Amino acid sequence: MKFQVPRGTADVLAEEAELWDYIEQTSKGIFKRYNYKEIRTPIFEHTELFQRGVGETTDIVEKEMYTFTDRGGRSLTLRPEGTASVVRAFVEHKLYANPDPTKLFYIGPMFRYERPQSGRMRQFTQVGVEVLGSSDPAVDAEVISMAIRLFEEMGLRNLRLEINSVGCPVCRPIHREKLVTHLHGVKEHLCKDCQSRLERNPMRILDCKNETCQELTKDAPTIDQYLCDNCRTHHQKVKSYLDQMGIQYVENPRLVRGLDYYTQTAFEIISEDIGAVGTLCGGGRYNGLVAEIGGNDVPGIGFAFSIERIALALKQKGIDGKLDTGVDVYFVTIGEKADSVSMKILDDLRKQGIKAEKDYLGRKIKAQMKAADRLQAKYVMILGDDEFDREQVVLRDMSNGEQRDVPIYEIIPILTSKLK
Ligand code: HAM
User: Fold this and answer.
1) Is the CB of 105 under 6 A from ligand 1?
2) Does pTM top 0.85 for this prediction?
3) Fewest CB within 10 angstroms: 99, 181, 270, 305, which?
4) Is 345 strand, coil or helix?
5) Which residues bind L-histidine (predicted)?
6) H or E element: which one contains 242?
7) Is residue 67 helix, strand or coil?
8) pLDDT tens, 179-216?
């Protein structure tokens, strides 16, 4: 029997892993600059956390969760997203006791039983941030601008930032009622999903991707016409901060997002370069979520993107994230005497921060030199019986082919100064 990875999952092989590392390191660098601290939460949580947090009527909770019963009879779920878990940790560890806003970031695998396609996986890795404890529109602007600056720093351009305000429990019910009344007349013509959304989650109908639904909802009332004063002012302020920072955005009053916890600001960053699933990043404010899962009335906002989608976009642009290719030195050993000291020498090199590799297959010198080429070695160090007796090694500069004998005990300072 031949095994393959489960559908919707993928192995990340060495080359791809370098690109992932580039994405993670660039993100962490930016998060530090904006004073965010890391949090790591478990990969599974009690199912109820997501039912309450993400929302009973969302696609995620209705049909995409990996839920199982453990041997103790508990219902657990592989996390489909990070926000609910971070908020749970915030409440559980009383992080709200800190007088300053809590600014957190996370990187880790998420799981959704979706129909896999390019950029849509069943296991994917999200990089996300959450800020808890401030409803200041400046925080919305910080979070949105940080996402944009992060993608720019990675080398991505031509991104479209779409923003909207999805209102709050004061103004949303008024819009909801108008929307439901408007859509009742065309109910039978909506897609099956939207027909059931009409009672339970009508706003989602506005961003249904089905063409018939889009046509039928062309003139449907959108939330922007019904925002309360508080939400309207908040939205204006977010936009004016973005204007000040020179961050371009498109207002999309149909932008709803697939999770129920959003209030006020919602946003997505879209790339035209990665095909059908063009959304690189999504986020927004969630002022009711902390209370919903048992905490006090603490506002929050955040975003997340997946490494898989960013990697697709970067590859489209020819960015491979290779910061450091090749090894510093390849150690060619010939004969038993050389072998007897090779591990000690290799260990000394590595202890000094030199990226060193040797042959472990007992190959002849020619094959070892070929390996050095494949590994893009900057230098090759050759040790045979003759050199061993003279306490020398041959050091070859692979950029110009020059080589000379150097005393073994001087190899570390010589290489260190050459590699500077
Ligand atoms: P989301 O829109 O469900 O939001 O996902 C955010 C991002 O995760 C997407 O824009 C996409 O880059 C990536 N993503 C989602 N599903 C998949 C998938 N099946 N395969 C690959 N990538 C995927 C959230 O998860 C919210 N927790 C974001 C947030 C944080 N809102 C506030 N704070």
Assistant:
1) no
2) yes
3) 99
4) helix
5) 81-83, 112, 126, 130, 257, 261-262
6) helix 229-244
7) strand
8) 999 988 888 999 988 988 888 889 989 888 889 998 98
**Strand partners of residue 358:** 331
Q: Which domains does the chain have, with CATH numbers?
A: 14-168+228-320 (3.30.930.10), 329-419 (3.40.50.800)
Kindly give the distance from the C-alpha atom of residue 386 to the centroid of ligand 1, in angstroms, as a whole number: 61
Task: For 104-125, write each residue's pLDDT tens digit.
Answer: 999 999 999 999 999 999 999 9
CA atoms of 283 and 259, how far apart (whole Å): 10
Residue 258 CA to ligand 1 centre (angstroms): 9
Using a 6 Å cutoff on CB, does residue 309 contact ligand 1?
yes
**Closest Cα partner for 314 from 24, 28, 74, 53?**
24
Question: d(Cα 290, Cα 277) in Å, to the nearest integer?
Answer: 30
Tell me the two tokens of residue 363: 């190959």
Token code pair at residue 373: 């080429």
Instruction: Write out the H or E segment, with its range, that includes residue 176.
Output: helix 172-184
With beta carbons less than 8 A apart as the criterion, state whether 371 and 384 touch. no
Cα distances from 342 to residues 64, 122, 232, 252, 360, in angstroms, run: 54, 46, 70, 64, 11
Could you identify the residue written with the tokens 């039983």? 113
Q: Point out the ligand 1 atom lying closest to the alpha carbon of residue 302.
A: 33
Which one-letter DSSP state was computed for residue 390? Answer: H
DSSP 3-state of 238: helix
